[in-house]
Design a protein that fits this description.
The chain has a single domain, classed as Rossmann fold, CATH 3.40.50. About 35% of the residues lie in helices and about 15% in strands. The chain is built from 4 helices and 5 strands; from the N terminus they run αβαβββαβα. Strands 1-4-5 form a 3-stranded mixed sheet. A two-stranded antiparallel ribbon has the order 2-3. The longest helix is centred in the last third of the chain and has 14 residues.
Length: about 100
């Protein structure tokens, strides 16, 4: 069954829905799979760097966000488009921490 906190957006992911409300915007999904303590803390630690999943339909925008988050110390991983990557990262998706 669908996750109880996911709105019924039909076939759209939440990120696709947001992008549809902002024509021309370059939407990149990121940070939503991490709890606050992982964002607030230094993403560089003894075991390596904190992985940060990114998804988006605009390659240039994803590159910008990837470079920025890499400079912050995260290890950005591109998981695809807002549709495919968004499904992986949304509530109930396999990459979302509960």
């Amino acid at each position: 069954p669908p996750h109880p906190k996911i709105a019924d957006l039909g076939e759209l992911t939440g990120s696709e829905y947001v992008a549809s409300l902002l024509p021309g915007a370059r939407v990149v999904k990121g940070f939503n799979t991490l709890h606050g303590q992982y964002i607030a803390a230094d993403p560089r630690h003894q075991a390596g760097r904190q992985v940060l999943f990114l998804a988006g339909d605009d390659t240039d925008a994803k590159t910008t966000v990837k470079n920025l988050t890499d400079a912050f110390g995260f290890a950005p991983v591109d998981v695809g488009s807002l549709r495919e990557g968004g499904r992986l990262m949304q509530l109930g998706g396999p990459l979302k921490q509960d």
